[in-house]
Write a structure and sequence with these properties.
Elements lengths: L1 H4 L5 H15 L17 H5 L16 E3 L4 E8 L4 E3 L5 E3 H4 L4 H6 L4 E6 L7 E3 L4 E9 L8 H6 L9 E8 L2 E8 L7 E3 L3 E4 L7 E4 L6 E2 L4 E5 L4 E6 L4 E3 L8 E2 L4 E5 L1 H5 L2
Length: 270
């Protein structure tokens, strides 16, 4: 029902929705490509709005990792074996997060991760943290718990319990996994190469392989988008990735900003 309500095209209704949302959440219209509510066919079109060219300059380059989304750092660090430690020592396993994929869980063992929470006011398109060739996509059915910080702290392993879509890539610095986690009111996640993945919500996991299609997404290009807000988890199998010193819990980040890089000696031979 909520998904349909965000796509009503009745002009007075959708204009009111957009204006209310801007006021309620303090949306920064100075970086929005088209800030006029009347320009959008429905609320969801505004929610997934584009930004003005140059609003998020890319601070990338060889051996670097950039932020895939605007938001707040919920957690950042290194995996402990096949487990990810979140706030208050809550943990969730990679195998569970990846929908039971034992090979992927082993591949990312002791790797690096950063979790970004997207608040309602944030820009809700997700971009590539590093150039990668698409290997596969996994849809994992689950709950739609809220992903605000209080709820994440209260529910053990929430990210491995919510509905989610995991995209796996091969990159110059090793395997990359980008997980888009659904949340309350988030009944729609879409990806750049295949469109809407959910809805409809499925009862069983869905795996799509792309090795033969040679799909390469450049660093900074759009990977997907949330139709309502949620969380993005970026994971790198390479244990030599070093996160930037200022990348700490509760810090704000913007799409395209450099957040990490491999050690120079590794980067030179990547």
């Amino acid at each position: 029902m909520m998904l349909h309500a965000t796509r009503f095209r009745f002009t007075p209704w959708k204009n009111w929705q957009i204006r209310w949302f801007i006021r309620r959440y303090g949306v920064d219209l100075s970086v929005v490509a088209d800030p006029a509510p009347a320009s959008y066919p429905h609320f969801n079109a505004f929610f997934t709005r584009a930004l003005t060219p140059g609003a998020r300059p890319l601070e990338g380059g060889r051996g670097t990792v950039v932020a895939p989304a605007d938001g707040t750092i919920a957690a950042v660090g290194s995996m402990r074996g096949r487990n990810v430690v979140h706030a208050k020592n809550h943990t969730y396993g990679l195998r569970a997060l990846f929908g039971g994929d034992e090979h992927a869980a082993a591949e990312f063992r002791n790797g690096r991760f950063v979790t970004i929470y997207l608040a309602p006011r944030d820009y809700h398109r997700v971009h590539m943290p590093i150039t990668g060739r698409l290997r596969s996509m996994v849809y994992v059915p689950g709950e739609l718990f809220s992903v605000n910080p209080a709820t994440v702290d209260a529910i053990e392993g929430l990210f491995a319990r919510n509905e989610r879509v995991v995209s796996f890539f091969d990159t110059d610095i090793g395997p990359l996994a980008v997980t888009m986690v659904g949340a309350v009111f988030v009944g729609c996640i879409e990806l750049a190469w295949c469109g809407v993945v959910t809805p409809p919500r499925r009862r069983e996991a869905l795996v799509e392989h792309y090795e033969d299609r040679k799909i390469v997404l450049e660093q900074g290009c759009e990977l997907g988008r949330f139709n309502m807000g949620s969380t993005v988890i970026t994971m790198l199998a390479n244990p030599t990735v070093e996160w930037s010193p200022g990348l700490k819990q509760d810090a704000s980040v913007e799409t395209g900003r450099r957040i990490g890089e491999v050690r120079p000696a590794i980067a030179e031979h990547a």
